[in-house]
């Protein structure tokens, strides 16, 4: 006699009787929520995992995780609410509202959570280990690992290089009425050479952080050889010219990714 068993993945919630996304064979639990609250999504392309880095840790938007798992963000948010105590045991949980991002026609602003590494993986344990979920876990391991290494690099290499550059600039521009603008112009130049935007330095991955360090060191050498801050800027711009072309390509790719996500 043949016996049929329904084995569940370790740590997965019971999803029996709940509507699932059959396009990617993902069973995502919503606790006691009605079936209609677990909406299905059409098969979609993989969305980049963009982490937001604070002074202490990196976090990822719960909506991004939901889209990569192929479920509506409200379904994952319902799980976070249901198991809020467990999520809190892995760090602070701050519920947010996507102000200004309401769908056409009004309605309530979408709610989401910025999850740290442990919270992100706990959320993923609440779904079955399908190929899509396993692939997402692997991407999360890589993304959070790069964030940690970038933070360590930021502390050991980037900050000293940053201060050396601006100390040298201070010697050249200390008598100028626009010294603050001089420092800002150099930051913009170095950012452009590294292919990043203002405000992104703390959350850079290793390749971007390495580009930033190289650009800063090249600018530093130019500043040290200049008689004044105006000459220093021109020499620095010429020194990082090969990087500027690469940086412009990187910025264009970021803009294209944002447009693609916005149009999905």
3D structure, described in words:
The chain is mostly helical and 264 residues long. It contains 9 helices and 4 strands, in the order ββαααββαααααα. The chain has helices spanning 62-69, 73-82, 84-88, 117-125, 131-173, 179-194, 206-224, 229-239, 241-263, and strands at 52-53, 58-61, 95-97, 111-115. The longest helix has 43 residues, at 131-173. Residues 1-44 have low confidence and may be disordered.
What's the topology here?
Layout: E1 52-53, E2 58-61, H1 62-69, H2 73-82, H3 84-88, E3 95-97, E4 111-115, H4 117-125, H5 131-173, H6 179-194, H7 206-224, H8 229-239, H9 241-263
Antiparallel strand pairs: 1-2, 2-4, 3-4
Helix pairs in contact: 1-2, 4-5, 5-7, 6-7, 6-8, 6-9, 7-8
The helix-and-strand class reads: mainly alpha
Helical content, roughly?
A: 40-55%
Compute the average pLDDT: 77
Please tally the helical runs, counting DSSP H or I stretches of 4 or more residues: 9
Report the sheet-strand fraction.
5-15%
Say how many strands there are. Answer: 4
Distance between the termini: 49 Å
Q: What is the radius of gyration computed over CA atoms, rounded to a whole number of angstroms?
A: 24 Å
Count of distinct structural domains: 2
- Which runs of at least 5 residues are low in confidence (pLDDT < 50)? 1-44
Indicate the overall shape: elongated
Query: Secondary-structure element order, as H and E?
Result: EEHHHEEHHHHHH
How is the largest sheet built, in terms of strand order?
1-2-4-3
Oligomer: single chain
Q: What's the story with the biggest beta sheet?
A: 4 strands, antiparallel
